[in-house]
Design goal:
By secondary structure, the protein is an alpha+beta fold. It contains 14 helices and 14 strands.
């Protein structure tokens, strides 16, 4: 206990008063710091993206370093990821600037200071002033347990029932004539959360992998029963975003599609869903955009034509599996955002993911036929479908379309990328979306490189035929994704025997 006695002579001396105040303030600050020690995660944060071009380099986990390599004397006590803008700027600063202060051998990333395991927390102090004496002292705390005499949840108390809440997924459905269109299946508007899994997660084991416009993905390591360690991806809404019911609905759709397509080999597996969080397969080998970028930087892919045919099958079959959930002949969900960023590479297969912009397909309540749409709620660029480009450019042929047909058109764009290592209408001149839209409306297509255009290789011929099917001018004549997938698989069997 620290005590200071007050006397008449002391009160008459201003300097002594200031000294006493300074000593008391110092004592209080020291005890207050002990009362609320900062707890740091024991794992090392590496906030840089870990995606690499598939096949170019092996996945290198930061946790594979030895314990000696993990210890670092650099003081990074301010590296606390909080929701404030200042802390996020600090994290960015450490990622860029701190790395330059490290040896190449240290891995180039700062390491968190370890918290002493002997520190007791919380520390509590008592400040008293009585009889002219100021006392600052730690307050002794004893660990006690209490057995409650009554159950906090009475057996005869109210139970949670479906009547307590009102499902609201239908509030976010757009693009249909709601007077005549209804959901095809009940599950389209439902969700299947398993929140207990998320309450068991060790959030200190999260490490950022990548982020998009509204969501962020983390690598998550968890110890399973038997001591085995497993890796997952934890996707949630970016902490810079204000949480809205629209974002909650997008997460619901993403988890719903992953759950309903769990039988597909071309769509990742889901391991959990709760409100804003989705837990899915860990897929560290990069995405299709990484592959295309790496190939172009290397002067072109060295893949033989038959492997390019296989990649076309990955694309077409993933879309077909999405459209034919539960084996239904009529599509019940469409992706609405098929592009190279949405395909992740795992064990030699590109898999379609990111279904947060997907939409359910409705049917006419009188005829049970598929309803058409006129809008899709997405930004315009030249990789969107012909029908959307027609509408954006005010073409007279613009009108309602069955929504799965826009997926088929857009998957043709990806097949073209993988066949040619080029984007659509990139050469001989890189066209804007308006100019490329005019070309497509006129019936002209992006040209092939000369070697592929003249090629008689059966794999090249098969993929070019599939592209003609994807890019059929009239959507009513455009084949389904399943028909195109079956065609490509049949051609591969003929080529490989």
């Amino acid at each position: 206990m620290v005590q200071f006695w007050r006397s008449g002579r002391m009160s008459s001396s201003r300097s002594l008063k200031l000294l006493v105040i300074a000593m008391v303030t110092y004592a209080i600050s020291i005890q207050f710091k002990l009362a609320f020690p900062t707890k740091y995660p024991t794992s090392r944060y590496d906030l840089q993206s870990t995606f690499e071009v598939p096949g170019a380099r092996r996945w290198k986990s930061a946790r594979s370093q030895s314990d000696d390599q993990r210890r670092d004397s650099t003081n990074v006590e301010q590296l606390i990821v909080e929701n404030s803008k200042e802390d996020r700027n600090l994290v960015t600063h450490l990622r860029v600037d701190r790395a330059s202060q490290h040896d190449d051998s240290s891995g180039g990333s700062p390491k968190l200071k370890q918290t002493s395991p002997s520190r007791r927390m919380p520390r509590i102090i008592a400040i008293e002033y009585a009889s002219g004496i100021i006392s600052v002292m730690p307050l002794k705390v004893t660990n006690q347990s209490t057995v409650f005499k009554k159950n906090s949840m009475p057996e005869e108390g109210p139970k949670i029932e479906p009547t307590w809440y009102q499902p609201n997924a239908v509030d976010f459905i757009d693009g249909y004539n709601m007077d005549v269109c209804i959901p095809m299946d009940d599950w389209q508007l439902k969700s299947y959360p398993n929140c207990n899994k998320f309450h068991e997660l060790d959030l200190q084991q999260l490490r950022m992998i990548n982020k998009g416009g509204s969501r962020i993905a983390f690598e998550l390591r968890q110890h399973l029963e038997g001591g085995e360690e497993a890796q997952f991806v934890y996707k949630t809404v970016k902490y810079t975003k204000e949480i809205t019911m629209k974002l909650v609905e997008e997460q619901r759709k993403d988890s719903l599609v992953l759950e309903r397509t769990s039988a597909s080999q071309f769509i990742p597996d889901i391991h959990g869903y709760c409100s804003l969080g989705v837990m899915m397969d860990f897929m560290p080998e990069g995405n299709m955009h990484d592959y295309i970028k790496g190939s172009r930087l290397a002067g072109g892919s060295t893949l033989p034509p038959v492997d390019r045919l296989r990649l076309a099958i990955h694309i077409a079959t993933s879309v077909a599996d999405l459209h034919t959930i539960d084996g239904t002949p009529m599509p019940s969900i469409f992706h609405n955002d098929i592009c190279c960023h949405q395909y992740l590479f795992q064990n030699g297969v590109f898999k379609l993911n990111d279904f947060n912009y997907a939409r359910p397909i409705y049917i006419n309540k009188k005829t049970n036929e598929q309803c058409t749409r006129t809008s899709f709620g997405m930004g315009m660029w030249k990789a969107r479908s012909l029908e959307e480009l027609q509408r954006a450019l005010g073409h007279p042929d613009s009108g309602p379309v069955k929504p799965d047909k826009i997926d088929v058109w857009m998957m043709g764009n990806l097949i073209y990328y993988m066949l040619t290592d080029l984007y659509t209408f990139e050469k001989p001149k890189n066209l804007s979306w308006q100019d490329s839209g005019k070309e497509l409306i006129a019936g002209r297509r992006t040209p092939y490189p000369k070697d592929i255009e003249k090629s008689k290789d059966p794999s090249h011929v098969a993929v070019k035929k599939a592209l003609d099917m994807c890019w059929t001018q009239k959507w009513k004549e455009r084949p389904s994704a399943r028909l195109i997938s079956d065609y490509l698989i049949g051609q591969l069997k003929k080529i490989t025997g």
